[in-house]
Amino acid sequence: MSLIDHLSPPARNAPESQIVAMLNYGRDREGLIPLWVGEGDRPTPDFIARAASQGLENGETFYTWQRGIPPLREALASYYERHFGGSHDPETFFVTGSGMQSIVLAVTAVCPPGSEVVYATPSWPNISAALAISGSTPVSAPLEFGETGWTLDTQRIADAVTPKTRAIFLNTPSNPCGWVASRENLADILDIARRHGLWIIADEIYSRFYYAGHRAPSFLDVADADDRIIFVNSFSKNWSMTGWRVGWIKASAELGQVFENLIQYSTSGVAQFMQRGCVAALEEGEDYVEDQKARARSARDALCDALLATNRVRMVRPEGSFYAFFAIDGLDDASSAGYRIIDEANVGLAPGTGFGPGGEQFFRACFLRRQDQVEEAASRLADFISGI
Ligand SMILES: Cc1ncc(COP(=O)(O)O)c(C=O)c1O
């Protein structure tokens, strides 16, 4: 028997990330254009880094508020008032050690082991993996891909509910599909949750990367204050802070002590000086977010135009997030084909096989990068596709 055999089943069975496996295969290739990971190519802007450095210089290196420093929770409340309307109590915000940790804490809070959680697929692999590690079973409600792109028939969510279901997890705008739930979709899902007494875990991390308006429709647009919704979010994407590992949860103030406890017994809080950087991001970072979105939109168009012009891909221009999700005619298994694309086109993509039911034939390309690099990647991919 090996040491592994003596581990708990959730740890033993946790899947290796297929994205990381592909990245490990190609990471040292000379000239490879990496579109596999979900982040932009720019470092955190100076005004945010400076605010954090200042905090560090000021000796903000002690244990701090578990839920987050008051100025950051107040800045989050004003951010929501500016972008989502209504009034928001700072007591409804909890600072966490990343969007990923927000997901884990939300699942821990509402899903006892043995629960089922319904989620729409294709979906970012970490969501189902986090559910499985916590002892829950992810139950897929697949999005459909048709002429107009990805759509969600919310009846599929209703049909997936069983007596064991505790929550519906919805990520919109979606990683990897770029699909964005409409206000009607959200109202329907909320209705299903209310009827069955379920929680909603709302991952709206890409809410500002929405190309048809200022921000994507949110459960905040349709919910009442006493609905059972936990919002998970992050500083990572809007402000180029993926390496910081800071996120937040928005939930009823009634859950304050619970989230404080869960934070205490996991990370015991986020470094105070980093939280100063996060305050700067929220208070001074609006132009930066708009610039990120403009950059993503123009790279999206370059990539999608080039791929669609081959007439050999199935895809639509994504309405939100910063990923193109496409299938190539003649290539049915994205996993093996992803390695071939590294070898033959020198472009790194994430294989849709890791994204749950419905993604097996698709590739995900992150386009939040310098325009010339995205254009070069698009042209290499187009050449590769025409040679199949
Ligand atoms: C849908 C979704 N949710 C959550 C996260 C977590 O982001 P982070 O842990 O960097 O804050 C990501 C990151 O890629 C994501 O795509």
UniProtKB/TrEMBL annotation:
Per the record, what are the reactions this protein catalyses?
L-aspartate + 2-oxoglutarate = oxaloacetate + L-glutamate
Gene3D superfamilies reported for this sequence = Aspartate Aminotransferase, domain 1, Type I PLP-dependent aspartate aminotransferase-like (Major domain)
Q: Name one GO molecular function term.
A: L-aspartate:2-oxoglutarate aminotransferase activity
Task: Give the matching Pfam families.
Answer: Aminotran_1_2
Asked if the Swiss-Prot or TrEMBL record annotates the protein with the keyword Transferase, the reply is: yes
Name the Gene Ontology biological process terms: amino acid metabolic process
* Xref: InterPro entries: Aminotransferase_I/II_large, AspAT/PAT-like, NHTrfase_class1_PyrdxlP-BS, PyrdxlP-dep_Trfase, PyrdxlP-dep_Trfase_major, PyrdxlP-dep_Trfase_small
The protein's Enzyme Commission number: 2.6.1.-
Q: From what superkingdom does this record's organism come? A: Bacteria
Top-level EC class, please?
A: transferase
Q: Taking every annotated instance into account, which residue ranges of this chain make up the domain Aminotransferase class I/classII large? A: 35-381
Q: Which cofactor does it need?
A: pyridoxal 5'-phosphate
Record has Transferase as a keyword: yes
Instruction: Give UniProt keywords alphabetically.
Output: Aminotransferase, Pyridoxal phosphate, Transferase
What PANTHER family does the entry give? ASPARTATE AMINOTRANSFERASE
Family of this protein: Belongs to the class-I pyridoxal-phosphate-dependent aminotransferase family.
In Swiss-Prot or TrEMBL terms, this protein is called Aminotransferase
Q: What is the originating organism of this protein?
A: Flavimaribacter sediminis
